[in-house]
Specification:
Blueprint lengths: L6 E6 L2 E6 L6 H7 L7 E5 L2 E4 H16 L9 E5 L4 H12 L3 E4 L6 H10 L2 E7 H7 L10 E5 L11 E2 H4 L20 E8 L5 E7 H27 L18 E4 L6 H14 L2 E4 L5 H11 L3 E4 L1 H13 L11 E4 L6 H10 L5 E8 L4 E7 H6 L6 E2 L5 E5 L12 E6 L6 E2 L3 H7 E2 L2 E10 L5 E6 L3 E4 L2 E4 H9 L4 E11 L3 E10 L7 H9 L10 E5 L13 H13 L1
Parallel strand pairs: 3-13, 5-6, 5-7, 7-8, 8-9, 12-13, 12-14, 14-15, 15-16, 28-29
Antiparallel strand pairs: 1-2, 3-4, 10-11, 11-21, 16-17, 17-18, 19-20, 20-23, 22-23, 23-24, 25-26, 27-28
Length: 568
Amino acid sequence: MSGMFEVGEATSGGTTTKVFTNTPPSLRAVWELSAAHGDAPYLVYEEDRWTFAEAHVAVARLARRLAGELGVAKGDRVAIAMRNYPEWAITLWAATSVGAVVVPLNAWWTGPELAYALGHASVKVLVADRERLERLAPHLAGTPVATVVGVRTGDAAVPAGTIPWADVVADDGGDGTGLPPVELGPDDDATIMYTSGTTGRPKGAVGTHRNVTAHLMNALYSATQGAAAASTAGDGNGDATGDGDQAPAPPPTATLLTFPLFHVGGFHSFLLPYTAAGGKVVLMYRWDARTALDLVEREGITALGGVPTTLFELFDEARRQDRPGALATLTGVASGATLVPPALVHRIDEQLASKAAPGNGYGLTETSGAAIVNGGADYLARPDSVGRPISPVMEVRIADPLGNPLPPGEVGEIWIKGPTVIRGYLDDPEATAAAITDGWFHTGDAGRLDEDGFLHVADRLKDVVIRGGENVYAAEVEAALYEHPDVTEAAIIGVPHERLGEDVHAVVRLRDGATADAAALRAHVAERLAAFKVPAVVHLTGETLPRNAAGKVLKRELRERLTTVASE
């Protein structure tokens, strides 16, 4: 394969992986290349509209402020804690362009959860909106944060010394879009993205510039192959599996971002490739199907991705309003971040009259986003599969307990290798060694490959519930339940849910004489954890929870019981 997607090899940390040889060396390089898009629309939020040229001016001003007065040096950590505002993207590009490591924080977290990550990542500068600052106010003094920048704070009380956003992007008399000088290489750290572990404490997945830009190249390769397939399918020339070097230029693109930017689905899979390709990114404060339908029509959205819940709701709203034309500009609709019901792919194909190619993806924070994809005719033919590797530089293996590859049809643990696999977990060499072997990331998920190389996810080995695309780790919620004095046993189970993929249920045995009810236990958890982690249902039982010989709760048995009850 030659041209843009020429494949070679690179060695990092003693591990050799396949790479696209023309991958940009850093996120700064990606941002600098995007200047060519000039006055094309870039970020849209309500009535705010930014062109690429305007964004480049703001990024340069903030970058100069970070590297100058705020003293941010290469390797320092800059955290972002806010909703999907345009300022999120501006901060990302400015911070990474001066060599800082960006720490995207989950906007749904509570104050203590946010403060933990700030301390664990040794964050120097925090850029946060009003709501996050209000949550953090009682806890900020205990963190290493030296500077706070407030975004859209209005007249709210913010921590003393908070610098208004307008000040950090004000005209500084500098050189237009000139960025401070810094030497960056592919193996320099770029991001720390938090993903919880079964211990209940979030782990910081450290991504390098190579990891993130490799995902960009994967996304561009996948899009190019899709364009080539559409072209050959339309002219009857047959094979659509060429290297894509001669694919037709795609039309101007626009996406409505439904994933949060702190998630790899929002940042890596959408913001990054749309920035590189000159696409328009339309942002929402929070998901609302009615608003989303209006935006798809008004902004001419061509591609949309989201968890099954959001897509079902959007299609339902279009039917409810009898506005099929509102979705007419869509040419691609993808889902992921949770188990995708096969019914969704058929719904996309039916309601959009086969004009929009359905898609699905499988990946993790540790693989910098989707590593396996299924789309178009392949997805319609195999709606129960997440697909094949997204590009020639990614590999998938089904491994036995010793790490040996298993043949097609046999179920084992899904392992993934490629340049997008993170370098490891922050300050946690044991977890890193347990999760990565010679560049292969152990996903903790069980699956099988069919004879054609399509991956089918069978079950999760990790004890995690994926609720509407958000990971809810059982140990963390169980720990919160066990803090209640009336609880003697607790287990968190994921129960299938039509819209969310799964919902969080708790099975709790109370102490003798206890008076707590389900509502009280849910309120107890809500005081300690983000709302999406609070059990939707608490099942109270007087029986000891089923356990194996080693004393571990038999969650599969509990799940079967709850699933049966939910379906009745």
